[in-house]
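anyone seen this seq b4? input:
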Amino acid sequence: MAEKAKGKAEQAKGKAKEAAGKVTGNERLRAEGKTDEVKGKAREVAGKAEEQARGVKDSLRGRREEP
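predicted toks r here
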């Protein structure tokens, strides 16, 4: 859950940077914002995958192999 939250926060930070760069005409800041958004999205997706893997692991924990 923490990775998803960190990803969302990083995306928000990126959007703010991008907007600030756009308003001020600072292309570097705008590019940094876009980069932060992409990193945040990747982190969020990784967090979701981790949660799904944990769910599968938990669901398999109670199963036994039958001969």
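The mean pLDDT is 89. The two ends are 37 Å apart (CA to CA). kinda curious what u guys think
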